[in-house]
């Protein structure tokens, strides 16, 4: 007969659930892979490198593989799930977020910024590496790179396609975006076409190049027209003011649209 749950904790998350039968942990959401999951869903032992030589994104399973992390040079771990155990405190420097809701992006960013200054390799993880940890990585990219939310999510999604944020995480990121860029900032609004976080933007190339839509600026009047079709209502030089009645809006010198 199987031992009682309280005598047989999960070897991965340390909580008590029927992990051998594939039961989801009620505390942290961990679930052991069952044979029915198929070969195609098996998770890589390696976390995803989001920023070369610095920032990695992964799951609790990735965080439990000390040899893999040491091979990657990881020395610091940001644990985004308050109920997940820090498994190897003698081998890595941990920072565990204590607040579950809303997501505490500022605290996480302070830790990641310190790791960046110290040139440390850091892993950010949640249970599956698809939601909470991805949200924290996106928030860090917004603050450190000055990218908007859609840009940051595009970058993360291109490197870790299995990322899938919940509505709650998206809402927290929208509020953080407005905090960083001001209340007038246009928030990211999830739509049916963006549910997979594809957004339709061109995929960035390399690990240091910003997404192609990084510097979206309003075009000037001269950039909004074709060179082959110059505007007829604009004159340049001193002639533009000669004989013009300032109160006459119908004059060719007026720029009103």
UniProtKB/TrEMBL annotation:
Region called Disordered, residue ranges: 234-257
A Pfam family this chain is assigned to: DSPc
Record key words, sorted: Hydrolase, Protein phosphatase
Span of domain Tyrosine-protein phosphatase: 46-182
GO terms under cellular component: nucleus
Ranges of compositional bias, category Low complexity: 243-257
MF term (GO), any: MAP kinase phosphatase activity
Protein's GO biological process: abscisic acid-activated signaling pathway; auxin-activated signaling pathway
PROSITE patterns in the cross-refs: TYR_PHOSPHATASE_1, TYR_PHOSPHATASE_2, TYR_PHOSPHATASE_DUAL
Organism superkingdom: Eukaryota
Domain (Tyrosine specific protein phosphatases) ranges: 103-171
Name of the protein described by the UniProt record: Protein-tyrosine-phosphatase IBR5
Organism (species): Paspalum notatum var. saurae
UniProt lineage: Eukaryota, Viridiplantae, Streptophyta, Embryophyta, Tracheophyta
